[in-house]
Amino acid sequence: MKELRFLTVDEFILRHEESNLLALVGIGGPNSVSGRTIDRSRVEAQLARAEAMAAGYLYGRFPALKTIEPSNAPEALKSVVSDLAIYYLRERIHHTNAVEEETRNRYRDCLSWLKDVQAGRVDLGLEVSGDAEPASGGVSGSFDQGDCVPIVL
C-alpha cells in the first residue's frame, strides 16, 4: 500500500470514537462490538484515496507536500483528509442512506476548502511554489484542533 503522507491510520482512529469506527469498518464478531477490530487495511485504502484527492488540488501549489511526513502535515489538512476518508468509508457500504446529509455536506465543505487553498484564498502555512500566485483578496488563518467537530458515524 502507498505510504500515507498527511494522516496515519493511528491518527485517524484517534480522531473518531472507536465504537463508531468498529460499526463502520469493524471485522469479526458481527453481533457485538466486543471481539471486533478495526479493519486497518480498509481505513488505509480510503485514507490513501482521500490523500490522493487532496494532493490533486494541492501538489502544484505546495510541492513540499510530496515529501512531508504525517507528523509535519498541517492540522487543517489532516482534518480534511479525515473527513474525506469518512465519506469514502460510508460510501463503500453500498446502502442508499449510508452517506448521511451531514457527512455529505462535510465532504462538499472539504472540496470547497481544497479549492480555496489551491486558489490562494486560504493559507496552508507552507511554502508556495514559485509558479503559483495567490488569488487577490485571499484570507489567512490557522486551525486549532479544538475547533474540530468529529463526524458522528
Q: Could you describe the 3D structure shown?
A:
The protein has five helices and two strands; from the N terminus they run H-H-E-E-H-H-H. The protein is mostly helical. It has one domain (9-147). The two termini are 25 Å apart. The model is unreliable at 132-150 (pLDDT under 50).
Summed up, what is this model?
This protein has 153 residues and is mostly helical.
Biggest sheet features: 2 strands, antiparallel
> What is the approximate shape?
elongated
Computed structural class: mainly alpha
Average pLDDT reading: 81
> How far is the N terminus from the C terminus?
25 Å
The largest sheet has its strands arranged as: 1-2
How helical, in percent, are the residues?
40-55%
> Count of helices?
5
- Number of domains as seen in the coordinates: 1
Low-pLDDT runs: 132-150
Q: What is the N-to-C order of secondary-structure elements (H for helix, E for strand)? A: HHEEHHH
Q: Rg from C-alpha positions?
A: 16 Å
- Give the total of beta strands: 2
Estimated share of beta-strand residues: under 5%
Question: Keywords, please?
Answer:
153 residues, mainly alpha, two-stranded antiparallel sheet, 5 helices, 46% helix, 3% strand, elongated
Which helices and strands appear, and what pairs or packs with what?
Blueprint lengths: L8 H7 L2 H8 E2 L9 E2 L1 H19 L16 H17 L9 H19 L34
Antiparallel strand pairs: 1-2
Helix pairs in contact: 3-4, 4-5
